[in-house]
Structure formats: C-alpha cells, structure tokens
C-alpha cells in the first residue's frame, strides 16, 4: 500500500481530483532518463505547466496530491514550496497528510516486482536514508492517525478528518 493507492481512495471519498506526483516525474524520466542530465529541468517545466493550470481551477474543487519528501534535500524544500504557493494562489486551505510505514514494510515494498517494472527506486538503503520523518513534527492530535496495510483502513480515517 503506497501513497498512490491511499490517495486514490481518499480522492474518491472526497470527490476530489487526484494528482499523483509520478504523473509529473514520469514524463521527465521517460523523456530524459532517470539519471539524465536534463531530467530535473524537464520535470520543473512539466510541474510549472501543470501547476499553472491547476491554479486556474475553481476554488470549490479539491485536490488530493501526493509526494515523497526527502530529508535534507533543497529540491524537496522547493517542491513543498510549490505546493504551498499553489494553495496560496488559489486561496484554499492546505492540509498535509503524512503517511508512515515501518522500515520493514518500506523495505518489502521498495523491492517489489511492481516497483522494479515501473522504474521506481528499488534500493531499500537509499530509501531509508532519504526518509523525511516529518510526521511526528506535524501531529497535533491522534484524529488523523491510521495504521494498516490496506488502503481501506487509513483512507476513511484520513477522509473523515475532512468530511466527518
């Protein structure tokens, strides 16, 4: 169970538009290559174009967006600032939801056949070194916390937080 799976269920429950971060990354990786010299420049152009159009959408429309923010990475700080600025530009609330998985679960998932086939990160040690661990810093109460291995478990807790 990953951010895409949970995000899709939450978006469906909220009647929201689902925007998965890999929609933007995949264009850059497909065209420039994972290690390509032009990957990040292309990603930034794709992201800028997408966010420009998202900013024009009615403020009554809710977005559920995914991302995987990494520790001590200026690019991740920039990515987060773009999300914040999109919300400010639209004049809508921004409610971050942090998903955590146990290191053993992350290791199992990162080495799955599905990830290998999709060209995603498959190095468990690299994933562990990148993990941000932001969740404990933004928790205020336990209402939004959910644990489980199927999206049917955390998704209702997350969506019910916004629509009781």
What can be said about the biggest beta sheet? 2 strands, parallel
Question: Count of helices?
Answer: 9
Order of helices and strands: HEHHEHHHHHH
The domain count comes to 1
Cα-atom radius of gyration: 16 Å
* Class by SSE composition: mainly alpha
Strand order of the largest sheet: 1-2
Poorly predicted parts: 132-149
Mean pLDDT: 78
Describe what you observe in this structure.
With 164 residues, the protein is mainly alpha-helical. It has one domain (3-100, 142-162). It is built from nine helices and two strands. The protein has helices at 3-14, 21-32, 39-55, 74-90, 103-110, 113-118, 124-130, 135-138, 154-162; strands at residues 17-19, 63-65. A two-stranded parallel sheet has the order 1-2. Helix 5 (103-110) crosses helix 7. The longest helix has 17 residues, at 39-55. The chain is globular. The protein starts with a helix and ends with a helix.
Task: Break the fold down into its secondary structure elements and pairings.
Layout: H1 3-14, E1 17-19, H2 21-32, H3 39-55, E2 63-65, H4 74-90, H5 103-110, H6 113-118, H7 124-130, H8 135-138, H9 154-162
Parallel strand pairs: 1-2
Descriptors:
two-stranded parallel ribbon, 164 residues, 2 strands, 56% helix, mainly alpha
Brief description of this entry?
The protein is mostly helical and 164 residues long.
